[in-house]
Amino acid sequence: MSEKTDLRDGEVAYLQGSAALPYALKNIGGVFSCTCPAWRNQSRPIDRRTCKHLKALRGEEVEFDRIGEPSEWEKAREKRKATSANPDAAKDIPALLLAHSWDGEVELKGWWMSEKLDGVRAYWNGERFLSRAGNAYLAPAWFVEGLGPEPLDGELWIGRGLFQKTVSVVRRADGGEAWRGVRYVVFDLPASVEPFEARMARLRARFDGAGHAHVDVLEQVPCEGKEHLQAELARVEGLAGEGLMMREPGSRYVAGRSTTLLKIKSFLDAEARILEHLPGAGRHKGRLGALRVELPDGITFSVGTGLSDAEREAPPALGEIITFRYQELSTDGVPRFPSYVGVRTDFVWPASKSKNTPRAAAPKESGTASTLVAQPTPTAASGEGWTRTFELVDDKSAKFWEVAVNGACQTVRYGRIGTDGQSKTTAFPSASAAQADAEKAIVGKTKKGYVER
After folding, report:
1. Environment class of residue 21 by beta-carbon count within 10 Å: exposed (0-12), middle (13-18) or buried (19+)?
2. Contact in structure between 233 and 72 (CB atoms under 8 Å)
3. Is 261:188 a contact under the CB 8 Å cutoff?
4. What whole-number distance in Å separates Cα of residue 23 and Cα of residue 21?
5. Residue 50: exposed, middle, or buried by beta-carbon count in 10 A (0-12, 13-18, 19+)?
6. Ramachandran area for residue 266 (φ above 0: left; ψ -120 to 50: alpha; else beta)
7. What is the per-residue DSSP string for 281-345?
8. Per-10-residue mean pLDDT for the chain, 453 residues long?
């Protein structure tokens, strides 16, 4: 063990494997992880996973002592998965009510209005919490005590802007005391055939003031009209909330997307799958610059805004699903000004009709590396879109500059940080010309002191 290396809490190490980029090994609150497929695709709880890279770094004995032998239940589950032609068939996937986005046409006066929480959707089946995809959240016994046998629909939530922290807690098997900061905010009774108002009355009678230390009933307020809605939306978003949810009065609980449940936000969001890690420049040289991702319809683009320094050092793995925010779609269907929100663990990727799949990386020799391996700048020659965002902050100014390339079109957006700024779109003779001009502009901005976000 004298030749092995351990990771302190919050530390990241890199180990070159068979992929183009080194794998990132990290220790976050005692959870040791690796971005390799072998670690990501295990069915064990995240705090009880290991891989050959962690064993090589920390030592096999240390890893064995940490995770122990698989339980008989885990062994049986792995055996079932290995012999099943359809592993998802055995999952208990809940039939949840899902929302449509409000189109601005439906009159919402008299509808029930509540905050849209940025937590983790959790269905209580009477025994345990399940995600939308049917994966179990292993809450401590003291957390679920008193929830009862009747199914509940709600959200595991820590607070506004803490989505990633919530995910990291609820996905652990030994979350233990970390669950003390989690609330189960319940907002419906999926098995009930009563109208919405009766269901809410039963929830309040059951949980309000009943000594359930970890359960809250989501507050519902009748909407008085458009001005009331806009004021409440501004209030919630001013507190860093996501937006609003609207429930039609008298509506029943139905499975699937329903026009009786609408979501309202000042921004749009969606899910995408990671195809590639793109290297950074300037301040981010030697680490992640952007994620090249694809939508379920096969459109590809890059997300370089919204990533923390820690995420740039240890980016989410290829193939993982992320949530991103954006302002609008271009005429080609590419999200404009996308911003990273976080990894989405409960999203079921649609049946493949996409034009792109994650590309297999060329094998490389084993070894260690402390920086990201350089990769080519994304090309727009195939019609793919990408966006790069830079900032200049000094004693005199705080400005941003953003360039987006989609095919032969280039859009530049710039202005003071905190504003939408102004934008200009230029059509070039070819995609390669748009790409070359953008690269030249990026070099110029970097020389002036702009750093990539």
Report:
1. buried
2. no
3. no
4. 6
5. buried
6. alpha
7. -GGGTTSEEEEEEE-TTS-EEEE-BS--HHHHHSPPPTT-EEEEEESEE-TTSPEES-EEEEE-S
8. 68 78 83 86 80 85 76 52 48 85 86 94 93 89 90 94 86 80 95 94 87 89 93 89 93 90 86 91 87 90 88 90 83 82 82 45 30 36 66 75 82 78 73 82 84 79
Q: Give the β-pairing of 136-137 and 112-116.
A: unpaired
- How many residues are present in the chain? 453
Distance CA 33, CA 46 (A): 8
Q: End-to-end alpha-carbon separation of the chain, Å?
A: 39
Domains of the chain as residue ranges with CATH: 1-90 (no CATH), 97-264 (3.30.470.30), 268-452 (2.20.140.10)
Q: What is the DSSP string of 218-257?
A: PP-EE---HHHHHHHHHHHHHTT--EEEEE-TTPPP-SEE
Measured from the Cβ of residue 244, the count of other Cβ atoms closer than 10 Å reads 25
């879109």: which residue's tokens? 385
Tokens read off for 446:
């970097």
Please name the amino acid found at residue 320: E
Cα separation, 77 vs 52, whole angstroms: 22
- The tokens describing 112, both together, are 């029930």
Burial (Cβ within 10 Å: 0-12, 13-18, ≥19) of residue 281: buried
Cβ neighbours around 363 below 10 Å, total = 10
16 token code pair = 């070159």
192, containing H or E segment:
none
Catalytic positions: 116
Q: What helix, strand, coil percent values describe the chain, rounded to 5?
A: 25, 30, 45
Q: Which two tokens stand for residue 133?
A: 């995809």
Q: How far apart are CA 78 and CA 65, in angstroms?
A: 21
